[in-house]
Amino acid sequence: MTTITNDSLAAAQQDMREGYQCGAPGVLASALVWTMAALVVLNTGASHGVWALLIGGIFIHPLGLLLAKLAGRKATHQKSNPLGPLALENTLWLMFSLPLAYGLSLYRLDWFFPAMLLLIGGRYLTFQTLYGLKLYWACGISLAIAAFVVLATQANAVAGAVAGAVIELLFAALLYKQAQQAQAS
């Protein structure tokens, strides 16, 4: 069992921030997938939008890594980083949760996008530990609030997909700014 001290946690988080540009490329990649899903909903319907988000989600991590590398980042963390397993574990948790969101869509199609907003938002809460950035709490909570608003207003599927896209685009921009500021200092 590895004991993590405050200093080792801070160093591990710094390694994650440097390697993945504060996670901004991954959030941007996710925002692009939400945008694609919204466009699919608009053009072909909600059921196709469900598949666009599920299938597009497969490409978020590789696209995020590509964007990080294009920005000159190593797009990896040190193998000894004790936070590495958390990154994998929260990805697996999300994958294991996807059948729940899909199952909801079979019962009520309009519940799929709010369910995904909640799942993704919950996942981002753990990113605060991964990156040491409270901005991820704000992102996760914003996605959760959007889910509840979409449900409470009985908004259509496109509203849920657009909410995910807009919120993640905003937070990607904020994270890129934070990464630039950290690199400049």
UniProtKB/TrEMBL annotation:
TM stretches of this protein: 22-42, 48-71, 83-105, 134-152, 158-176
Cross-referenced Pfam families, in alphabetical order? DUF7010
Q: Which UniProt keywords apply?
A: Membrane, Transmembrane, Transmembrane helix
Q: Specify the protein name.
A: DUF7010 family protein
What organism is recorded for this protein? Rheinheimera marina
Lineage, broadest ranks: Bacteria, Pseudomonadati, Pseudomonadota, Gammaproteobacteria, Chromatiales
